[in-house]
Amino acid sequence: MLDLKRLKKDSKALANNLKKRGFSLDLQEWDKLESKRKSLQSDTENMQADLNQISKEIGISKKEGTDSSKLEKKASEITSKIKSQSKILSSILLDIDTFALSIPNLIDDDVPEGKDESDNIELRNSGKVRKFDFTPKDHLELGSNLSGIDMESGVKITGSRFAVFKSDLARLQRSLINFMIDIHVQEHSYTEVYVPFIVNEESLLGTGQLPKFEEDLFKIEGKENFYLTSTAEVPVTNLFRNEVIDSKELPKKYVCHTPCFRSEAGSYGLDTKGIMRLHQFEKVELVQATESKDSDNALEELTGHAEEILKRLELPYRVVSLCSGDIGFSAAKTYDLEVWIPSQEKYREISSCSNFRDFQARRMKARWKNPSSNKTEILNTLNGSGLALSRTVLALMENFQEKDGSISIPDSLRTYFGSSKITL
User: Contact at 8 Å (CB) between 67 and 61?
Assistant: First the structure.
């Protein structure tokens, strides 16, 4: 959520920033709501001042033994008006809150301007794209030949865009989970957490999935307030909700493995085959909370931690800075890591690392105690996948496939997987 003080003070500047991401801030509606709030609040404060004065006069009257009935009647009338006015004011404040929750985050000044992903800017790339001396297969053909990816059973059990991993490919995903978490905990100083996969409405409001993206969520029927989590970002970031963290504990760094559930309502017709885009998938997620002055460096650090996994898996990838038209609702700045997919002959997203500044923390009332001022300040939150697992499995299968249909296992993963190859 944006700082309402800033919105009141500099609404035009905020509108210009939001315009870069294609969002039109309704200044007329804002001015209308703010004008009503000011008027009602001013009237209420004036009536309260009058009531305070009359209360004093009643007290004096009673001490002197004079008749205070007229004053008491007037006080009763004002009290009634204040109650009525307060109800209207509460309604206006709720409208303002609803209005504010619909506004996306401001983007950083160095975010490239553009309309869509075609305007994203490549910052760097790593690893060599492999030149095959045979015609490479896609992951579905490889998985079928290895009896490791069973899309038909996924459809039978649940429906389209669900998959069953079997045997060595199920083991490959499990190996990747342990591999990733160990690196992030042992080398990057994250604390591992295990969180619920079901979250409430407050948690989704806190990180910005609600109210805007409800159609992308799986809501649990019969439970008004419960949803399957769309990303580990939601439950893990909400560990900070309504908390005041001591400065000595910052930065807070959590790593978490969870399944994620998305209806993919906005991706009709995209990646309908295979495991690139599933309704249920798994991620190892990185979340950080910092002071505002440290969040720029934290984004670079967190992105580097996700990159380290790709480097150790020897997967060719690139880092792109998302343009203003492609950046997410809650993010101020985002780097996408895109891994090379041989069957598509292009890079595809495998991790998205974002700095949300104080946008999520303001919604969650997540704060830290500044020892210099002895006051609480809003935290900055960040997160990124370290990495998305089904896409990592896909990338390893396609990039490390051999002519005979077997799949080599990168050196760094062999201890976890238990062998050097997946064979027919």
Answer: yes
- Rounded-to-integer distance, Cα 203 and Cα 206, Å: 5
Domain-terminating residue out of 101, 127, 156: 101
The CATH number that applies at residue 170 is: 3.30.930.10
Give the burial class of 365: count Cβ atoms within 10 A of its Cβ; 0-12 exposed, 13-18 middle, 19 or more buried: middle
CA distances in angstroms from 348 to 119, 174, 271, listed in the order given: 15, 22, 11
CA distance 31 to 37: 10
> pLDDT tens, 89-120?
999 999 999 999 999 999 999 999 999 999 99
Identify the H or E element spanning 167. Answer: helix 167-186
CA distance 406 to 396: 12
Distance (Å) of CA 83 to CA 51, 77, 79: 12, 10, 6
Q: Is the dihedral of CA 173, 355, 242, 375 positive or negative?
A: positive
Give yes or no for a contact between 217 and 209, defined as CB atoms under 8 angstroms apart: yes
Beta bridge partners of 126: 317
Owning domain of residue 229: 117-422
The model carries a pTM of 0.93
Backbone conformation region of residue 269, classed left if phi is above 0, alpha if psi is from -120 to 50, else beta: left
Beta pairing class for 367-370 and 244-246: parallel
Q: How many CB atoms within 10 Å of residue 244?
A: 13
Helix or strand (DSSP H, E) at 43:
helix 27-64
Q: Is residue 20 part of a domain?
A: no
58 and 158 within one domain: no
pLDDT at position 195: 98
Backbone angles phi, psi at 221, to 5 degrees: -60, 140
* CB within 8 Å of 153: residues ≥ 6 apart: 164
The pLDDT score that the predictor gives to residue 265 is: 66
CB of 146 within 8 A of CB of 333? no
Residues of the chain with pLDDT under 50: none
- Helix H or strand E encompassing 226: strand 226-228
- Residue 155 has a pLDDT of 96
* pLDDT for position 270: 75
The secondary structure of 295-359, three-state, reads HHHHHHHHHHHHHHHHHHCCCCEEEEECCCCCCCCCCCEEEEEEEEECCCCEEEEEEEEEECCCH
Number of neighbouring beta carbons within 10 Å of residue 70: 11
